[in-house]
Design a protein that fits this description.
Blueprint (H helix, E strand, L loop, with lengths): L7 E7 L6 H10 L4 E7 L7 H11 L4 E5 L3 E3 L4 H8 L5 E5 L1 E3 L1 E2 L12 E3 L1 E3 L9 E3 L6 E3 L1 E2 L3 E5 L19 H11 L3 E4 L5 E3 L7 H14 L5 E2 L7 H18 L6 H11 L3 H10 L2
Helix pairs in contact: 6-7, 6-8
Length: 284
């Protein structure tokens, strides 16, 4: 198959209804290739990010789709040509700048599996907290999932996959769920290192996050844990910490611990489930 992708469709779900002029100028100055910008107006909250991105896919006219948050800034010039080059490998279905080599059986953030991959600048709403710079090796690495603040996919994949708006209602786990679908289709997910982006916000681990975490776990239970290699190391300790943190979030959000929660802990930790319960009481 001849590789002739020349343009990129950029898809953004905007809480403001349209993206800031500063971001539009930043994209225009750095992308380096022709592109179309598709902004899904979600100022009235009629969309989840799942339905917004599905609508963006329907409107897109190009084969490479770039899904991005509206609170980022590009620090790399000519990043569009880098994106196009990464899809010259016909086995690559998805690329991102952060993600995990393994997804745990415990409902958790992808970052709970360590080591994980990051190539970005993470800024924080608290201006007194310094930004964190994450740079990785020069070569792309295969991942089990990517983080949703920025990722790109082949549009042709959407003949077989979609953002699961029927199951998920809000703004969590869309990235991990679509990553699992890409893997299910036999395509590789790559973490790339030649594009640098600054992200200006962090996620919220609230009750909605917990609801989505269990929905994701039920959907993919038979496929978890999912790993691209034998890493990460210290899996028993990671499972213990992930389950401890899950219980902590239950307490923090006044979210009842169900029989499902206890069963996940028993399957994952066995008798160590008691240790996780005790540790969760002391976690700050």
């Amino acid at each position: 198959m001849t590789f002739n992708f020349k343009m990129i469709s950029i898809i953004i779900c905007s809480k403001q209804g349209n993206i800031a002029d500063e971001l539009q100028a930043n994209i225009r100055a750095t992308i380096g290739v022709p592109y179309e910008l598709i902004v899904i107006d979600n100022s009235d909250n009629r969309h989840s990010i799942f339905s917004a991105y599905n609508e963006g896919v329907r409107q897109a006219t190009q084969e490479i789709l770039c899904f991005m948050h509206e609170d980022i800034r590009y620090h790399s010039d000519d990043w569009g040509n880098h994106v196009i080059a990464h899809f010259s490998d016909s086995q690559t279905g998805m690329i991102g700048l952060a993600g995990a080599y393994c997804l745990l059986f415990v409902p958790s953030l992808w970052a709970k599996a360590k080591p994980h991959f990051k190539c970005l600048i993470q800024s924080f709403p608290d201006k007194n907290r310094p930004a964190r710079h994450y740079r990785s090796s020069e070569r792309p690495v295969e991942l089990a999932c990517v983080d949703g603040f920025w990722f790109c996919m082949r549009k042709s994949l959407f003949e077989h996959v979609s953002f699961d708006a029927g199951r998920f209602r809000h703004f969590h786990f869309y990235d991990m769920d679509i990553s699992m679908q890409v893997r299910q289709q036999g395509y590789a997910i790559q973490g790339v290192t030649d594009i640098l982006i600054e992200h200006f916000s962090t996620g919220s681990l609230d009750a909605r996050w917990l609801e989505a975490a269990y929905l994701f776990h039920r959907k993919w239970e038979k496929e978890l844990p999912a790993s691209v290699n034998n890493s990460p190391r210290h899996k028993p300790l990671m499972r213990l910490k992930a389950y401890r943190d899950l219980l902590y979030l239950h307490r923090k959000n006044h979210f009842p611990v169900s029989s499902e929660t206890r069963m996940i802990g028993w399957k994952t930790l066995g008798l160590n489930i008691a240790t996780a319960y005790l540790l969760s009481l002391f976690k700050k």
